[in-house]
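Sequence decides. Consider this:

===
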Amino acid sequence: MKPDFRRTCIGGFPVFLLYTDKIFFVNPAAEKLSFFLFFCRGRRKGSGSILNCAAFHAALSFFPAETGETLALCGEGVRGSVYEIRLYADKAVVFVTDAGLFFCCKNGNLSSVCPNGPLRLSAQTLFEILNRAAGYALFERETETRSAFLTANGCRIGISGLSPDGRLLSGGIRSLNIRVPFSSPVTADGETLSLLREKESVLIAGSPGSGKTTMLKKLIYALAAGQAGVYRRVSVIDTRGEFAGFVGGTPEILTADVISFGEKGRSVETALRLFSPEYLVCDEVGSVDETRRLLEGVNAGVQILAGIHARDLHGLLRRPQFKLLWDHAVFDRIAFLSDKEAGKLVHVYDAQEVEQMRSKVCV
């Protein structure tokens, strides 16, 4: 069989897939070639797509070699469905998958209950993993770590255990949560395109892990790759570094500008002043103060697409951030995602429906 090379992108660096036996990674920042053996034939049922498996191995690049090898063994059969790798200092390493939680064992096995021989990593090792993910320049990225996260290779790493002044301590990290990016090819289906039929602002709501970021990526693709029927100018406010790799590594996306790691209100102001977008995409609506800063820049006739945490409309109506946004008529519709099937739309509310629900809640 003739080898079939294909190019894609995971976490901001090119990935070349050889579908007959190996996956090669080229990291331009490191200017070196590395590769993982990855036999595509005979993969176990449930091991997931090739791209998701590659994203899993990209996350393992943060670990010391011996630990990475053990986790690769633990990941046999589930690596394509792992969307979080949770590290609890001196306690356990856990894979969060579509099928639930699995504990990693020192012998390379997985267990659905805490085993007698769990893989344990010290707080110092967690610090070293984080420092490696930061390119050995952790303290130069204090703007991110003060917000208790770091983004590397498309993976967002949550950090627990900061000192009182927000600075990292080598022995003070109590846990890390490495979110493995969902790496299936992102294109907008008919359901997604329906959100763009009218030139309106849409708020994407859902529980953590429901696929809000993936839905926003689909909307970016639809607008900036011409899938919605016409190319639109899109500015992406990427405060956590989750969109830059996707936009930069997708050749079809031609008309999107990304502003990464800036303060949200200031980034919105910059986008409006310098890029004159038709659509503004915000990764997530955060605190009330951040929402107020966001409002300063949105009254410019630009359509807004953003995500927010909320399981249902009742819960959303009680969030002060939403009240502030809705009172200023920022959004026209609210699209809720399923808790059971990531990325699936379950209901889209228009302004009239939201107002009717608000009146009932207020009464």
Observations:
- Residues 1-48 have pLDDT under 50 and may be disordered.
- The chain has two domains: 49-179, 190-362.
- The first strand starts at residue 5 and ends at 10.
